Amino acid sequence: MTGCATRGTVAAVGIDRDGALPNPPADLAKVPDAAPRVEAIRNGGPNKPYEVLGERYEPITGDAPYADRGLASWYGRKFHGRPTASGEVYNMYAMTAAHATLPIPSYARVRNPANGREVIVRINDRGPFHKGRIIDLSYTAALKLDLLRGVAPVEVQRITYAEIRAGAWQKPVNEPAPVFVPDTPPGAPQRETTAVVAATAATGQNYWLQFGAFAKLDGAEALRQRVAEADLTLLPLLTVVREGGLHRLRAGPFPSADEARATAARLRDEGGLESSLIEKR
Fold first, then answer.
1. Is residue 183 domain-resident?
2. Is residue 175 part of a domain?
3. pTM beyond cutoff 0.85
4. End-to-end distance of the chain based on CA atoms, in angstroms?
5. Could you give the angle at the alpha carbon of 243 between the alpha carbons of 239 and 247, nearest 5°?
């Protein structure tokens, strides 16, 4: 759990003494999502370029779309009541989040692909600054997504001001979740979307890699975090399956056994991660 809650400067923050406060308010799961509205984005201040740990960040200042997959963390009592990068006071029970480059202020939809839950948060802080982590959620936002156990994969999509003006950000009741298509730089390898994964499964090409089986869900979730940190392109393929009384972490389906084996070999050689090939019919 790591965020940035400083006024005037942006600094990396450690994880010591952070966490939940005792006796949190009741019914936090019923706290409404942030309500998107058009707010002025000024150049400079929290939106000027900055550097942390040798990395340079250039915040978005226009109304450009943004979508990404990565790991989410959350931050709590260590920063509760302290100023955020926007100058507002951080409230761990509000629906806010920290992001390294999204405009301050702006709004984003965050989805937990493991359970399909979604929330809308207001970006008013900077961070996180760990490899692979793309957003730092408030305590309540993490609770509503069922992410309080620690770092976990999420999908983040900005709600642009054009969408707010048109009311396009409001999803009709019972509308299925849209296929998530992250921004991909020119020349970068394309990532598989949910639709591609579903189509692969439908053809009967069901080759999976299993990384471990655990009596408790926490063990599988911790391993999922480790695998995701080793290879972020596996995020849309990672899932925890309850089978035979155990929580099994798997990645797939892969279109062929050879591709699954190649992925297993790469993860073993580069990340020390062992897995076994499973064929499901």
1. no
2. no
3. no
4. 40
5. 55
* Of the candidate ranges 88-97, 122-131, 169-178, 201-210, the one whose mean pLDDT is the lowest: 169-178
Domain that holds residue 53: 28-166
d(Cα 267, Cα 153) in Å, to the nearest integer? Answer: 18
**Rounded (10°) angle between helices 217-230 and 257-271:** 90
| Three-state helix/strand/coil letters over 78-141 | CCCCCECCCCCECCCCCCEEECCCCCCCEEEEEEECCCCEEEEEEEEECCCCCCCEEEEECHHH
User: Domain boundary residue among 126, 148, 166?
Assistant: 166
> Which residues share a beta bridge with 157?
67, 109
Q: Among candidates 130, 119, 150, 139, which has minimal Cα distance to 34?
A: 119
Judge contact between 143 and 29, C-beta under 8 A: yes
Q: Say yes or no to pLDDT of 71 above 60.
A: yes
The pLDDT tens digits for 159-217 are 999 999 988 888 655 554 444 444 433 333 333 333 333 434 444 457 889 998 888 88
